[in-house]
Write a structure and sequence with these properties.
Layout (H helix, E strand, L loop, with lengths): L16 E5 L5 H12 L4 E5 L3 H11 L5 E3 L7 H15 L4 E4 L14 H30 L1 E6 L12 H21 L4 E8 L6 H6 L8 H10 L5 H11 L8 H12 L10 E4 L11
Parallel strand pairs: 1-2, 1-4, 2-3, 4-5, 5-6, 6-7
Helix pairs in contact: 1-9, 3-4, 4-5
The protein binds hexanoyl-coenzyme A.
The site of hexanoyl-coenzyme A (HXC) has 22 residues, from helix 4, helix 6 and helix 7.
GO molecular function: 2,4-dienoyl-CoA reductase (NADPH) activity
InterPro entries: DECR2-like, NAD(P)-bd_dom_sf, SDR_fam
Organism: Stylonychia lemnae (Ciliate)
Length: about 290
């Protein structure tokens, strides 16, 4: 983190307030928050359901600027409305929303429980809708803003073991387009970021551990291990499956989130930016 050099003007987001969901586990969402604070944001608010971890991350980020913790579950509309109202009360505005809250694990479609499928739909799809609606009705409808949805390439092909997450991300991409059209006249841009394999993220750890398939305990352990247990395999694989011959970093995603939130992207809406090092170009045809 210390060696990170900003490529943008330090006042790129001067005076802006960002609301970010799903940042309590660190990874790319925490780095997006840090990037916004380092580029002049007046404040960042984190919303995640684990109040303790959400508070810890917000406290750590406070060294870079004003960062508040608003614990809440994106699946519950009342939590979203409360967190948005508290943010407006504390900071006066929400100019940028990053819908990052998501759940995932490897599971075969035949063994996945109905509740497992539903849970991922509710966190990803319903959560994105709930927070977007709360932020739009609570602030952006009158003042404009930017909504950034974190998506994936899972639904671009038939990603085995990902029926739950791929369906959810397809729905999110659809929402990106619809909301861009409905809310464009009110000066709200709605865009998406599609990360490839990003080292140091929970998704990377969970999805790279094939042993964790259909197993909640192993899936959680994969995250706790970070990427260490699979590092050798992933490094080898990465060289073959990514055009740029490396995995992505959380800074690659934070820089994209800075660009999309800023006036540099003022004519970009209803679309996704793919940040995968060219991985989709090399997906195998089986
Ligand atoms: C099979 C599983 C499972 C697993 C949970 N379930 N983990 N099924 N394999 N590994 C099932 C449970 O058995 C249960 O169904 C249902 O899912 C809900 O589980 P809970 O633990 O009660 O839910 P909850 O506490 O709300 O946790 C949600 C979660 C969890 C999604 C299951 O993984 C989570 O909180 N994840 C948050 C962080 C995360 O996953 N980040 C990665 C995002 S990566 P039953 O039937 O037993 O009741 C990402 C990128 C995608 O999105 C693209 C990458 C390329």
């Amino acid at each position: 983190m210390e060696s990170y050099k900003s490529l943008f003007s330090p006042d790129l987001l001067k005076g802006k307030v960002a609301f970010i969901t799903g940042g309590s586990r660190g990874g790319m969402l925490k780095e997006i928050a840090r990037g916004y604070l380092l580029h002049g944001a007046k404040g960042v608010v984190l919303m995640s359901r684990n109040a303790e971890k959400n508070g810890e991350v917000a406290k750590d980020l406070s060294q870079y600027g004003q960062c508040l913790s608003e614990p809440g579950d994106v699946r519950k509309p009342e939590d979203c409305k409360r967190a948005v109202a508290n943010t407006i009360k504390a900071l006066g505005q929400i100019d940028i929303l990053v819908n990052g809250a998501a759940g995932n694990f490897l599971a075969s479609a035949s063994a996945l429980s109905i509740n497992g499928f539903r849970t991922v739909q509710e966190i990803d799809t319903l959560g994105t809708f709930n927070v977007s609606q709360a932020v739009y009705n609570g602030y952006m409808k009158e003042h404009g803003g930017v909504i950034i949805n974190i998506s994936a390439t899972l639904h671009w092909s038939g990603s085995a073991l990902q029926v739950h997450s791929a369906a959810a991300k397809a729905a999110i991409d659809s929402m990106t387009k619809t909301l861009a059209v409905e809310w464009g006249p009110n000066k709200v841009r709605v865009v998406g970021i599609i990360p490839g394999g990003i080292e140091g993220t929970e998704g990377f750890a969970r999805l790279s551990d094939a042993n964790a398939m259909n197993d909640k305990e192993k899936a959680n352990a994969a995250f706790k291990d970070g990427t260490q247990s699979n590092k050798a395999t992933m490094e080898q694989l990465g060289k073959k499956t990514v055009a740029l011959q490396r995995w992505g970093s959380i800074y690659d995603i934070a820089n994209t989130a800075l660009y999309l939130a800023s006036p540099i992207a003022s004519y970009v809406t209803g679309t996704n930016v793919l940040v995968d090092g060219g991985a989709v170009l090399l997906y195998p045809n089986m």
